[in-house]
Amino acid sequence: MNHTANTNHDAVLRARVALLGSGTLPIRQQVAAYRLLARVTPLAYLPRLSIALYDYSRQEFAHDTRIALALRAESLDAARRIHALEPERLELLAAALDAYRELLDTAGSTEEAAAAARELASLGYRPGIPDQRFHRLAYH
After folding, report:
1. Euclidean distance between CA atoms 89 and 92, whole angstroms
2. Whole-number Å distance between alpha carbons of 140 and 130
């Protein structure tokens, strides 16, 4: 069974049209579209989903650490699922992991933040400024 077996093809078409529209789509709608499209075409949409989830966590839920953490965990999960042959996979994974680490640290989950920092180091990256990493990837 393929990824499209349980997918509403009209919804996929609407998501693609919304993303291609001339207007700026609110981040909440971008995330919804990328979540749907990542199930159908993961190679193309998982990187975009990861970036959009990070942006969503910052723009809409900066005041709610619990929801922001869940969104960053989802962003990290999307980054982990990106195909190994994707050229910027490692950079996106590091950005998502660093953003998750940063918020864990802010929330006082120091043990989990330290584990994320160790994983980041195992990838060959240092903790940094996730905003800059995501911004560079988003506008590359």
Report:
1. 5
2. 15
